[in-house]
Amino acid sequence: MRHLSATLSRVKPSPTVAMSGRALELQAEGRDVIGLAAGEPDFDTPPHVRAAGVAAIEAGKTRYTAVDGIPELKRAIVEKFRRENELDYAVSQISVGTGGKQVLYNALMATLDPGDEVVIPAPYWVSYPDMVRLAGAEPVIVEAPAEAGFKITPQQLRAAITDRTKWLMFNSPSNPTGAAYSESEIRALTDVLLEFPDVWILSDDIYEHLTYDGFRFTTPAQVEPRLKDRTLVVNGVSKAYAMTGWRIGYAAGPEPLIAAMRKIQSQSTSNPCSISQWAAVEALNGPQDFLDGWRAAFRRRRDLVVARLNAVDGIDCATPEGAFYVYPSIAGLIGRRTPAGKVIATDEDFAMALLEEGGVAVVFGAAFGLSPAFRVSYACSDEMLEDACARIGRFCAGLG
């Protein structure tokens, strides 16, 4: 269409949404498809959180609220950062949006101009580069291969920074790899950032509560307090509290940045859902003991998937520290041919053939900036994962 914006040509649709959509189409046609593409916990939202949402409806808390969150939720977020991250913020330094994605988008739109650069480690969440492009800036991709634990080094970070760099996008534990930076690894990066006073840190901590094997989560502003005034810490209730559909994300950062993000939001969605905000208050303030059981289930599923995939010839799967994803390499399968005659030239070829011929939906590695690989979400039942891994094994064994 002649009237579409030129900016639109700079971005592409989300590959994770596309793969999940194709899986749903095949299921609607009667095909037996197991979906491992979506990053969504299979647990129900905890009962006390659901009850808080119902109570908000019954109490008539269904009207417009302040643009970027009710005071009660902002106070709960302030207390969460103090309690869990040793970070002190004022209510005026908190922003609440319609999911973490909107919070990230608001921050980038409020700060980026054409010619600016944003350093993004790869593999990355699929939306990071396209958000940067939508804001008119350029993503600078720094590859972190499996041999490096999917983590960038201080040397790589220093080399990527130029006089045009505005942000480092930092995500730990990571989507898509589940890799998590230790406190010492974060400190090595923050030491570099101290050398560049104009570079800010956008820390996406959405998988904070999903770490395993005694791993201790820390966030950059906690590790290096001197960077707090140029760090935006982003989090939300979707992953830790199984509230993906409630759409509540939040951030803490310098007051001028928060005010700029509020201005963006005031002219887009305005306030997040009032009912979801009250449920999020209960999620942050209420009991947290259920998380231990959820983490145990995710750890068991992680170990199951890693073991099953590593038993498949041509697949090499690292054991991640957190989140609910694994990111196996398929370097050993490139160039082979499916029973239907399709050559596996790329990881996208692999993912599409696995879906069409093997009945398993995954996301190809090119979508995350590092190939050849694919992402598996193990946020589903043990039985489904056993079946899916068996199908992947049979599909790979049938490659010529």
TrEMBL record:
GO terms for molecular function: L-aspartate:2-oxoglutarate aminotransferase activity; pyridoxal phosphate binding. It catalyses: L-aspartate + 2-oxoglutarate = oxaloacetate + L-glutamate. The keyword Disulfide bond does not apply. Its cofactor is pyridoxal 5'-phosphate. Residues 32-392 form the Aminotransferase class I/classII large domain. Gene3D superfamilies: Aspartate Aminotransferase, domain 1 (3.90.1150.10), Type I PLP-dependent aspartate aminotransferase-like (Major domain) (3.40.640.10). The keyword Transferase applies. It holds the Pfam family Aminotran_1_2. It comes from the Bacteria. Its EC number is 2.6.1.-. Belongs to the class-I pyridoxal-phosphate-dependent aminotransferase family. This is Aminotransferase. It comes from Roseisalinus antarcticus.
